[in-house]
Structure formats: C-alpha cells, structure tokens
Amino acid sequence: MMRVWLLPLLLVGTGALVAASMALRGSVGSAALFLLGFVVLAGLNSPLVFPRPTGAAADGRPVVYWRPGCKYCLRLRLRLGRDARRAHWVNIWRDPEGAAMVRAANDGNETVPTVVVAGRPYTNPDPAWVRERLLATSRPPTAAG
User: Fold this and answer.
1) Of 6-10, 16-20, 114-118, 138-142, where does mean pLDDT reach its minimum?
2) Is residue 129's pLDDT more than 90?
3) What is the 3 state secondary structure string of the chain?
4) Is the pTM of this model over 0.90?
C-alpha cells in the first residue's frame, strides 16, 4: 500500500521543504504557488487519478494494466478523459495476477501501460487507438437489415 503513495508523498514533502525555505526568505506568495504546483504534481502521480481497480473482466472491454508513478500510464489516463471509465483498470502493484500477465506479454518486464483488447496485449499503445477500442466495445450492436 505504501509503495503506491511513495512518489506523491516525496513530491509533497520536497515541495513543502522548498516552500518553507522560500517563505522564511520572505517570498510567501511564491512559496504558496510552488507548494501548490508540487501538490498538483503529486496528485497526478497518485492512484487517485485512475479509476478504481476492477480487475480483469471477461465482458469484452479493454483491460489497462498500469502502476502508480508511470508517466505513460498517466498520459494514457489523461488523454482518455471520461472514456477511461469504460475500461477495466488493473494496478499491477496490487494485483499479482495482473503483474504476471504483463510480464508474460513483455518478455519478463513489467512494462506499462499494457492494454489487452480481445485477448491480445498491446504495450504502450497510442491513446487515440485505445479510445477507439473503448468506444467500439461500448456501442450496442446495430440491427442487421
């Protein structure tokens, strides 16, 4: 549990120390802005940005394997926007089976994000491509004829 919060806590702690130093030198406004920037950066690198872990499901939706602190996972999450909730998100630091799946797909490496679509893994795919897959799997089937 602590592992996923290590980077955000380090960012907030570092920001607080530097901001305190700035405030002691009389730059209170700059210190506040500096601290705010570090808090935002910590938030972006925390598990709070990602949808709740749901585990892998067999309902046909893409499964995104990720881990906190991964800038590529964050890029994917932010570029997907609200569509990110259509995927299953698996934190490999909390799900040993998910971590094993990622290692199997990436020659023993825990390279994330790894997105599984229709049973096939894709490592660090383009966010636009993932969005297309998310929208395709969430549309109701059209009637023939």
Assistant:
1) 138-142
2) yes
3) CHHHHHHHHHHHHHHHHHHHHHHHCCCHHHHHHHHHHHHHHHHHCCHHHCCCCCCCCCCCCCEEEECCCCHHHHHHHHHHHHHHHHCEEEECCCCHHHHHHHHHHCCCCCCCCEEEECCEEEECCCHHHHHHHHHHHHCCCCCCC
4) no
What is the identity of the amino acid at 71? Answer: K
Burial of 122 (0-12, 13-18, 19+ CB in 10 A): middle
Percent with pLDDT over 70 in the chain: 87
Q: How many CB atoms lie within 10 A of CB 42?
A: 20
Residue in this structure with the two tokens 């920001």, named with its chain if needed:
15
